[in-house]
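Hi, here's the filled form for the chain we discussed.

Project: internal
Contact: R.S.
Residues: 284
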Amino acid sequence: MLPSLPPPRFAPVTMQQPSVDDASSGFYDEYVETDPVTGESKALTLDEKEKLYLECLDAYYNEDGRQLLSNDDYEQLKLDMDFEGSKVATFSKDEIRFVLANKRYKMGKSVMGDAEYDQLRGKLREEGSLVVLHEGASCSVETGICKTDLQVDDAKQRLLYFPGTAGGLILTCEVLFWTLHLDPILSVLLGAAPAYFFGVWFTENIFAQKPLVVSGNCPECGLLQPVFFGDLFDVQKDGIAGPKVPEPLDDIEFKCSNPSCKIGLKATRSKMLLATVAPKGAKK
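And the returned structure, exactly as it came back:
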């Protein structure tokens, strides 16, 4: 019979807490606001940080370079916003100018003329910036007309170019196969670029002239309304469906697709706005 052996002994393992040097630790310190009178410090929410950030920019650009925070505090504030995923921290210079121009206008201290403001708004619209879009309908007190913003429907817009691109790819593959006897897979790879440019040319010159698919919420009931701008197969230009027009219409009038609403709407391409035809509260 074998003698029993004592249980093995293992040297105790000591878990060491990772240390962060002072220089790195300061990088992660959160920005806190300190009361100049009491000296009490408090952490700010993300909304408060974004408002303070915009106030700093507003004071610097519109009040002769006045600084609300020191350079170190400003950098720490912006770093905190980056860590918390703030969209305001990623605004471009033009987006900041637009936001501050609206703020100053509501304060009665306009810093931008109407023409410059409209030009800046149009530029941001073309770039697809979200700062120019309203979350809900805005109604004019004088006219009673309500408006909402239109947004490009990227999925449907790409779908318009699919027939031309697919046809161009098939045609290119056939030509490469019967002339150079290339493998079908290689033909697809080589024909992708020509098919794309053919699809763009076919869509914008033959299939749909100046096509643009957008969508916007009805100012009255909020139901999403799809809108198509353009001229399919020159129907408008040739007068097949209505009076002849030399160019695709900039304004399109229609009724809300909601059966319980059916209010008259007008979509304007140049301004990317969806507006009611009659004042709010008028009979449909």
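Let me know if anything looks off before we file it.
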